[in-house]
Design brief:
With about 200 residues, this protein is of the alpha/beta class. It has a single domain (about 5-10, about 20-195), classed as Vaccinia Virus protein VP39 (Rossmann fold, 3-Layer(aba) Sandwich), CATH 3.40.50.150. Helices cover about 35% and strands about 25% of the residues. A 7-stranded mixed sheet has the order 3-2-1-4-5-7-6, with helices on both faces. β1 (about 40-45), α3 and β2 form a beta-alpha-beta unit. The longest helix has 11 residues, at about 20-30.
C-alpha cells in the first residue's frame, strides 16, 4: 500500500478523529501565519479541506487558495463542502508541483510534513513556488510528540513519519535556504514559520 492508497482509505472517516477543539487550533495556525486579505495561499496536504475555511476568513474574497493532496478521495470529500470560487482543489504531490515559480504569498503545510517521503525535495518545490519574501508554515495542531506516537502506533506506511524536533527543523530549513525561522513546540501545538529570502 502506498501513501495515496493509505489516505484514500482514511478519507471517509478522517474528520471523526479530530480533537474537539480543532477549530481553535486551526484558527491559531492561520493567525500565527500572518495571512492578509488578498493573499495567494497554497494549502499542501489539505486532506478533506479542514484548514480552508480559516484561510478564507483571512484572505477574503480577493484572495486565492490552491488546496492540494495526493489522495483523490480526500480531495473528493473536500470538494463536497462547496467552497467558493476562489478555492481550487487538485490532486497533486508536494514533491512535484504543477505550479509556476513565485506563485504564492504563503505555503501552508498543516498535518502533512511528516508524510513527505523526501523532505528536502518537497521543501525545494515549496520554496520554488513561494514568491521572494513569502512565508512557509509547517504546523501540526496536536503537537509533535502526539503525532509521532500516533504514527508509531498506527504502523503501516506512516510508522516512521516524524515531526522533527525544533533543532532538526531549524537545521533543515536553514540548509534549504529559508530565513527568519520561528518554531513553537508545545505539547498540543507545533508550528514552524520561515521565509524565502526576499532577493
Amino acid at each position: 500500500m502506498d501513501r495515496k492508497q493509505f489516505f484514500d482509505q482514511l478519507a471517509p472517516e478522517w474528520e471523526k478523529s479530530a480533537p474537539a477543539d480543532l477549530s481553535q487550533r486551526l484558527e491559531r495556525v492561520v493567525s500565527m501565519s500572518r495571512i492578509s486579505p488578498g493573499c495567494r495561499i497554497l494549502d499542501v496536504g489539505t486532506g478533506t479541506g479542514g484548514l480552508i475555511r480559516f484561510i478564507l476568513k483571512a484572505i477574503g474574497k480577493e484572495g486565492y487558495v490552491l488546496a492540494i493532496d495526493i489522495s483523490p478521495d480526500m480531495i473528493a470529500v473536500a470538494k463536497s463542502k462547496g467552497f467558493p470560487a476562489n478555492v481550487e482543489l487538485q490532486v497533486m504531490d508536494a514533491h512535484n508541483l504543477n505550479v509556476p515559480d513565485n506563485s504564492f504569498d504563503t505555503v501552508m503545510c498543516n498535518a502533512v510534513f511528516p508524510h513527505f517521503e523526501d523532505k528536502e525535495s518537497a521543501l525545494r518545490e515549496l520554496q520554488r513556488v513561494l514568491r521572494p519574501g513569502g512565508t512557509l508554515v509547517i504546523s501540526h495542531p496536536i503537537g509533535r510528540e502526539a503525532v509521532n506516537k500516533l504514527h508509531s502506533e498506527t504502523g503501516s506506511i506512516v510508522a516512521e513519519d516524524r515531526v522533527p524536533t525544533p533543532e532538526q527543523m531549524r537545521d533543515l530549513l536553514e540548509r534549504m535556504g529559508f530565513v527568519n525561522i520561528e518554531i513553537l513546540d508545545e505539547p498540543e501545538f507545533y508550528i514552524a514559520i520561515s521565509r524565502k529570502p526576499a532577493s
